[in-house]
Amino acid sequence: MGSYIIRRLLQMIPVVILVTMMVFMLLHLTVDPIALLMGGGESLDPEQVAALRAEYGFDKPLIIQYFTWMGHTLTGDLGRSHKTQRPVIDELKDRLPVTLEIGLFSWLFSIIIAIPAGILSAVKRGSIADIAATVITVGGLAVPGFWLGTMLILLFAVQLRWLPPFGFVSVFSNPIEGLKTIALPVISLGVSAAALNMRQIRSSMLEVLVQDYVRTARAKGLKESRVIWLHALKNASLPVITLMGMQIGRLAGGAVVIENLFAIPGMGRLMVTSILASDFPVVQACVLITALMVLFSNLVTDIVYGYVDPRIRYS
Amino acid sequence: MNNKTQSIEIPKSSGSQFWVNTKRLMKIPLAVFGFIVIILIVFCAIFAPLISPYDPNAQSKNYLKPPSSTNLLGTDQLGRDVLTRTIFGSRIALIVSLGAVSLGIVIGVPLGLIAGNSRGWVDEVIMRLMDALLSFPSLIIAIGLVAVLGSTLLNVILAIGIANVPFIARIVRAQALSVREQPYIMASHSIGASSWRVIFRHILPNSMAPVIVQGTLGMAYAILTEAALGFLGLGVPPPTPTWGNMLQFAFPVLDRAAYLSIVPGIAIFLLVLAFNFTGDALRDVLDPRLRGLFR
Questions:
Q1: CB-based contact B231 A257, cutoff 8 Å
Q2: Who contacts B163 (Cβ-Cβ below 8 Å, separation ≥6)?
Q3: Closest by Cβ to A147, choosing from B133, B144, B268
Q4: Three-state DSSP class for residue A87
Q5: Cα separation values, B256 from A131, A247, B60, B150, Å
Q6: What pLDDT, on a 0 to 100 scale, did the predictor assign at position B65?
Q7: Does B268 contact chain A (CB < 8 Å)?
Q8: How far is A177 from chain B (nearest CA, A)?
Q9: What is the pTM of this model?
Q10: C or N: which end of chain B has fewer Cβ atoms within 10 Å?
């Protein structure tokens, strides 16, 4: 297992380097990175521009600039926000935990809904429950999360007045208020992930349930619940683990819209307000952090996968 | 439907293959539904000026009027007709998704072919690049690019299209790798066919089915991404009506004029649903083994 993890870590290095290069190049897609960094808007006189160019090292070759930027990034220096004048890293420290909390609960929501629903619809194939689950899956994959959120606000906040329409209280500081504020965002964000999981669990369970060893387990006289939860689910879970890991990225992308809809002060909202305020260093840092989070979750997924299925480790 | 497709024999002539597949597709009710919705919305997009009752940007003094006989789906804060704007919004949804998917195919297919046929370091470099691209969620790539390049129609297409490239490249490469090991490829090489001939005669046509399926499902995803960009105020800017920016504009008056938020959302939902149904059906018809290969 140890050598498998080391191998995966080594394979990740070139990808991490490429990701940092892409994020770095984002700045150089424009004709004048200075204007982008300075937030555009007011025109600077040529002397100032030249001074800034020298200060940021834009007069040096691109490769040198990349290494300088990487050096800063590795030491946690992600630049300074124009809007607040604070270091970007400090902005992120405030915002990232909020996004992680919303993401975590959405992820859990998708799993808690999908596992029982997926199993039920596979075991009772063709039943009303199966048809209902399939309809919800198909709908969940086609509905834009932010629009579902809007409709939930309309129903639960505007009409029924049960839940607040926006804002954020951490579940960890105030569980009751916290659950109330994150309920709608978590459902809006988690629904497409739940739909995907449900579909995957249903189809892998259907495949597994006709296998010989499941028939053997039944023939031995095991209880049906034991056959399903222990024998079948364990083997059906492999593709589901991959899928659940891949969803971290999907959730991170979706969180940007959901945070803006519900006015949640997370990284996604920071990203959009920074774009609208032409605060580019913050945008760049958010893109980088998101990509690194996705890479990290892929690594964890691979490790879990290797742990669950020994064949993966030795291939 | 899975059982049926497995038992059908594949006819020899490739010309009739298209019709065989079309017939099989037409036996899947959800595919028929998907086709009808797509055709209807494409029709609306093309003939928008002819079928819509008003000009999409014509303002009037009838602010926030609920649906009535003069404005079938009501009016917005500027007195613009919602039905008209929804019809015109289909143009951006279709142009952006079609553009983005085409861009993904135009860049992704050659990359996948090169990677799958060259092995060694070229393959390694291309695939690591694709891995790196895949680690950016597509909405994040889109937001990042639009932030730098500005939100014009072309940039929105570009931003969403880039996110499609790695999916296509991976599928084509996988297909190339598996086709290359087939005996008929060896036979083809042994009678003196050049690598280019093998690529264009055998590998490329064999990759088309999964690319078409991924492209169709990618349309659905691109429509959702475009709508999200529009809702964030980063898509094609107003006054051009897009479903995303209509929803953004409607949100502040949700408590007074809910229909403004309901209508464009249903339009997005229907079109995405239609592409998902069509993509799933195409996959079942073209190659049931492809199940699970797509996002």
A1: yes
A2: B100, B104, B133, B136, B138, B141, B142, B225
A3: B268
A4: strand
A5: 36, 36, 18, 33
A6: 85
A7: yes
A8: 23
A9: 0.89
A10: C
CB B87 within 8 A of CB B265: no
**ipTM of the prediction:** 0.89
Handedness of CA A178, A182, A187, A192 (dihedral sign): negative
**B255/A275 touch (CB, cutoff 8 Å), yes or no:** no
Residue B276 has its nearest CB partner, among A141, A158, A298, at: A141
Domain formed by B93-287, architecture? Orthogonal Bundle (1.10)
Residues in chain B: 295
Domain limits of chain B? 93-287
Task: Give the integer Cα–Cα distance in Å for B241 and A231.
Answer: 53
Q: Note which residues in 91-120 of chain B have CB less than 8 A from chain A.
A: none
User: Over the stretch B118-156, which tens digit does the pLDDT of each residue have?
Assistant: 878 999 999 999 999 999 998 999 998 988 888 899 999
The minimum CA-CA distance between A143 and chain B, rounded to whole Å, is: 5
Task: Tell me which architecture the domain covering A89-308 has in CATH.
Answer: Orthogonal Bundle (1.10)
pLDDT in tens, B159-191: 999 999 999 999 999 888 888 888 888 888 888
Residue B261 is nearest to which of A150, A252, A253, comparing CB atoms? A150
Q: With cut-offs at 50, 70 and 90, classify the pLDDT of residue B205.
A: confident
**A96's tokens:** 């990232």
> What ranges do the domains of chain A cover?
2-74, 89-308
B167 inside 8 A of chain A by CB: no
Of the candidates A79, A102, A96, A108, the residue with the CA atom closest to the CA atom of residue A293? A96
